[in-house]
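Re: beginner question about structure tokens

> Can someone show what the tokenized structure looks like for a real chain? I only ever see the sequence side.

Sure, here's an example I had lying around. Input first:
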Amino acid sequence: MSTPTGLSEAEAIARRKAGQGNNVTLETSRSYLQILQENLFTFINTVFFTLSIFLIFLGRVGDAVLVGVVILGGIIINVLQEVWAKQKLDRIALLTRPQATVIRAGKERNIDPKEIVMGDILVLEMGDQIVVDGEIIGETGVEVDESLLTGESDAIAKQTGDTVYSGSICTSGSTYYQVTQVGKASVAYQITAKAREFRKTYTPLQLEINIVIRIFLLLAIFLWILVGIAVWTGFLNFRDGVQRAAVIAGLVPSGLYLSITLAYALGAVRMVGQEVLIQQANAVESLSNVDILCLDKTGTLTANRIHLHRRDAIDISDLELREILGDYVVNSTAKNKTSEAIALVCPGIKRTVTGEIPFSSTRKWSAIVFDDSQRHGTYILGAPEMLGDRASLSIIHQDKIKDLTKQGLRVLLLIHHPQILALNEIKNFLSSTSISGDLDPNIASFTPLGIISFGDELRPNVKETLAGFTTAGIDLKIISGDNPDTVASLATQVGLGEKIPIISGVELAQMDDAEFTRAAKKYQIFGRITPEQKAQLVGSLRKEGHYIAAMGDGVNDVLALKKANLGIAMESGSKATRNAADIVLLKDSFASLPHTFLEGQRIRNGIQDVLKLFMVRVFVVTLIIFATGQVLGTFPLLNKHSAVVTIVAVGLPTMFMPIWAKTGQFPRGSIVRSLLTFTLPATLSMTLTGLGVYLGYLVKSLWDATDSEVMTSLALGLSGSASLSLCNAIVSLQGAFLSDRLLAIPRSALVTILVWCGLLLIPFLKPPTTAWVGGEALSKDWRYTGIAIALLGVYCLILAIPVTRNFFELSLLSWLDYCILGLVALAWCLVLRYLWRTKLLDRFLGIELE
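And the corresponding structure tokens:
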């Protein structure tokens, strides 16, 4: 392929001055604005910001600020974590990205993409991402992956005169293309962003939490409507209506969002020490859902380094085979690991080449046509199963290939035809299902020249790493473009077993969708798989309800990574693969993956404990609001009362739970449903206890009231002297109930019992002794109990210090009252433990018990 002249430097400068330069900076990852937008404009944030505006409208600026601080805190944490990941990824990209290669005045130069101008001629080689739109002018064709543009997974052949688009990736071959669009006229910066764009996926836990929050939002809206009707009809004054609306807003658990965000951030920080870069905040928790990990052999199990193991010449000398192989790789324009391994031991000479078909992972072979006095004819190098029936291989050589394959070696076959064949003839010949047919019989006379085998270098500690996946409860699927027997042999070497079910891509290609899905579930080793089949396997497993993590390092893995629930890439892999992944393993730290899966389990288990406390708190407050409103027509809490219950009994404890959570598997299925066993007994019993305390102190407050008019009206009404007197008594009684002065003591008593019961609930999450075993198994972890005791002290300080007590609008009770409430809380503990241990509610609801 002759080198074009290209523009001169003076022409390039002139065109740049004329505004024809590629003056758009290509981001190496998401922009800071993208990160901010993706974390700011979410459904949950919209809900809570709307609540803040509503509270401001109601005059509750302090409450609005409280909600806003919680949400902004979560946004800031997510943004900072993802900005850090972006900066780390940008540094990797700057160290590894090749500069654009331009032809200026007949010479190749490496330049930054922003220095490209209209009319420049660029070099395009396998693995390169096309950075500007252009037209192929080279003599040889290439294949490009345009899936980032069109979504179509098939490689597209590009010949002279065809247009190539920025954002597509060269998967095979090399050529030149002339720039036709630059700057904003090019889609390079948009496609680059899309190639690196994080898939905004939600984990199953996030989806269910979103449902819970939506339910609470609907509940709050329903209660707001009732309050609005009460204000409109005059049953409530506007001030009390605002107060109730503010409390109802607190039913939507904004603190839950912050707690989950903190858990994700904690997981990302922990993973830094494991050489794992988290590019999406929920990626670590997402790992906890993974039950199948799809691995590529090359670059994952192996270190992506191979060496030429041996050469077996067929009817020629070893020296001749070595010279042919050397000439083959020296004159090939498409370089890869295999050609590099051959070149190390087989020196070659530049020859006259009339045609070339570069290697691709889809074809599994490459071809080169020589027209040279010392080297003549057509040579094809590829997988034996793709070429073996096109050349006459003896039984001995067929057995040799099988033996080498079973040793875990990668095997290639070199075949030769003495004539100079056209490239389309070669393609038709190798893609046909039979040698006969309409093809020229002379084309079928290929001769085998040699069997070449290569050894892969296993990654350090690979056996221990794979054992770690088993510990984490992860099933493995090894999907490779290599021979299935080779992959199976390697799997045996790394400890996956002796008799592993294997299947080839050729067999899969003959199956319908139903058979393909069954095969995806049945087999563990998949060999000779095309990139499209790899993505199809991932998709089939997902449709069967599995949560899939796909791992890769090459361009051919991008489709599978995008199809999976979670994409994992190697740092040394292609930039397109890194950009499509949710997690990047820095320094190719494959051994850190089991730790990462276990960390995901830790995060999820911690969030489950957080969710339990939030669900109990919200349900209890909601039921108490309904009950007191239905029975007494009063509202049991002020907004700051709800806030102190949330902060002390839920918010502060849940900050520590993700830190202290332990690893461990959990049952699949609905997460919220699995929490009912814990939350339902706790909710109902705590609600009844809170109502009893509130009603008891309400009666006591009425009894001690000094409002003679109310007491007189009540006496008249009860004596039945007149129906009018009874009505007046009821009206007066309602007025007394609605008096903040009379409700101050009952409300403070209710806040105290809710806080104390909430704190006593914490040790039940991780029972330190058998006495606390009820809703959860014995853990012997005293930290949960310790934080509960510490927060009890915090609540006592809030009551003891006049400033904080007045801020939260609490009334100080007598020591006798606090002792009584303490005894009530302990009695509640015993009742709750009895409900859990006997599983009365579970049996009533028909929940299956293990």
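Each token stands for a local structural state, so reading them left to right follows the chain. The chain is about 55% helix and 15% strand.
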